[in-house]
Amino acid sequence: MEILTLLKANIRRRKGTFVSVVILMFIISMALTLILSVSKSCEASLNAAHSYAKSGNVIAMVKGTAFTDEMRKKLDDEAIIDHYRATPMAVISYGVDAPKEKSDISCFFSSIHDGIRLLNKNCTDYEDSIPPLSKGEIYMSYGTKGNLKCEIGDKITAHTVSGDYDFIIKGFVTEPVFGCMNIGWKWQFISQEDLDIISAANNAAKTDEKCSTGYVVELYKSDDCKLSDGKFRRQVNLDTDIIANSWGSLTKDMSMHYTNIYSDNTLGIMLIFILILAIVVLIVTGHSISTGIELDYTNLGILKSQGFSSTKIRISISLQYFIAEVIGSIIGIVCAIPLIRVLAGVFDPISGYITETHPALGTVILYLLCIFAASVVFILLITHKVCRISPIRAISGGRNEVYFDSRIKAPISSRFLSSTLALRQFTFARKRYVASIIIAAILVFFMLMVNALSDSTSSKKAMEMMGAEITDVNIKFNEKTDKAEIDKVLDIIEKKSEINKRCFHYGVNISLNGEEIFCSVNNYPEDTLVKKGRAPLYDNEIVITEMVADELDLKIGDTIDAARFDKHEQFIVSGIYVSLYDTGMAVSINADAGKKLGIEAKVTNGGVNLKNSEDAEKVRAALEKEYGNKAEITLTDPDDDLGLINNAVRAMRIIIYAFSLFFALIVVSMVSSKAFTQEKTDIGIFKSQGFTTGKLRLQFAIRFFIVSVIGAILGTFTGTLLINKVLSLLLRGIGITNFYTSFTITGILMPAAAICICFFIFALIVSRKIKKVGIRQLITE
């Protein structure tokens, strides 16, 4: 009963602090509910899509001539394979054109089969059934919609080895294996009549290893097979050679990783940010409690003299903040639940399926319980100073000095009285502002981090350093072109502008030590961006990414076995390079090395990166004059970005900025309110000496501006040192092991200025209480 009495009194006396903690926990719990629920919804919805489609553990695109009776028998005899499903398909490798966009994505077409779900016209939910297709109609995977910027009713043209075929888009479907926007292969669905026509024409045409007909072979693990999907694929390949004889393959685990890669990474960064904000709440709470104990020194002594034990007082303080945290958390969860579907929908066009809402209330409550537990322990540690309060000393007014804690005396200037006096007050009580400095530093660090993410997606140099292939002039040849002809094209370009990088390579999947890896057969290997070692200049050399090196336990100088269909060769790892192909799981060899594996590095498209991008128009004009009837010449739009992916980064940037500024408001309100309470007597003295309310408010705000500047400098310094390393670690899942951003003056100053200005404005707003302090306050004291 005594504890409840103290609890009610504490809440009544400190309503502002109580409400502030409620708001802070409201933000944290709402964000946790959204992040964890969206993550769970994405995972559960993708699992449901794979379950509905009955996806195999390994999916391989096998050339028709390679899927022989002997191959089928090997699969039948493989002990770790329960069964397999082979779906006839026609390979479309020359790209697909839509009214608004042309794409080089590789597609394989088959007739519709069980397990494919049709989206409604608004792409917001699934239809109950999927109508059959007529000749000339096509169902396209949802991820293709973003790639081609196409809509239902648009006409698309598929380029094949046997000619071009036109189709009308009848709808978009969820195909969970290849359906996301960032997987290069796409599985599209046409009528059986169209499939028979294209297959017959492809078989009759002169085909090569990439453009033909074949099968989508799905392999299913036996019940007693305990291998992971990756190890299962490797073992099956070693036993049957099916992967080595395929155009490419994908495990279900890899597909799920690629499909949710952007949602996982975006939500992961947001989760870290929110958990850091939870630590900020603990810091602010600790500061509030510590200051409150100092201000209530006499009252606490009186309570002790009346028989209230230190334990009861500490429990009442802990309960005050615990109740505030619980109330804020409950409100946050309730408000977040309706927003889960909205946030999840942001990732649907990227991931290629419709996310169904699955609130992760259990996980959210677990996180919140951890925060509550940490908060209780932290508060009990802070309130330990209650045990040291002596009732006699407190009642007699013999408490320790709480106003100044430093011997540093900053000079005071009559010319800049408000500013210098604010600096003096800061240096005299700097311990009081340590928490605010740390908080400002944390907020600036995360704002700087999200700036770096946003800037890197629109910076050509940054994307190049991270392994993306950035071109200014793009060339799409009418037919496959060898290096000799490309050299002539480059000669024309060099007459108009200096070339920075040549991007003409042929991409295939090869087997490395039994693992299928994307391989770039480069006509100009000397232009490869190598981090360690050197480019693959000889026909027995290969460069690998850091992720391949880690996955296969390789280092520079090691020998590796490479296979393509029935050809096997040994290569020496000459370097570690940077690439975003296949989310960083890629290798590269030169054209001569490709020939040893039976791969001709002829290309249908490529591009150049110019030293001076402004010369691009001159280069295009020169190329069109010479090659206008042999190739299509286009320029990369300098304002073009990563579309939907960049929108997700922008959304994350807005959320972090909004949360940071709102946190700044609450934190400044709590800290400045305590500071104001501590300094009522000082304010009365200043007013008695002729200081106006306006000058005192300005002085108060300047003090918090100084605090924020120190925090901003600390956050900026830490950010410039660590952000590239931190993001390289966080974004490793999408292949970025070398995150790069060049910090600009604007990029650095914007978050720092935002926090500093907010601290100043919020402190100025809170300081309006100074109006209520008069000289009578001094007389009373």
From TrEMBL:
Any Gene Ontology CC annotation: plasma membrane protein complex
PANTHER family: LIPOPROTEIN-RELEASING SYSTEM TRANSMEMBRANE PROTEIN LOLE
Residues covered by the ABC3 transporter permease C-terminal domain: 272-384, 654-769
Name assigned to this protein: ABC-type transport system, involved in lipoprotein release, permease component
Keyword Lipid metabolism annotated: no
Entries under InterPro entries matching the protein: ABC3_permease_C, Lipoprotein-release_system
GO terms, biological process: lipoprotein localization to outer membrane
Entry keywords, A to Z: Cell membrane, Lipoprotein, Membrane, Transmembrane, Transmembrane helix
Membrane topology listed for this record: Multi-pass membrane protein
Stretches that traverse the bilayer: 18-38, 267-285, 322-344, 364-383, 433-453, 654-677, 698-723, 743-766
Subcellular location: Cell membrane
Stored Pfam families: FtsX (PF02687)
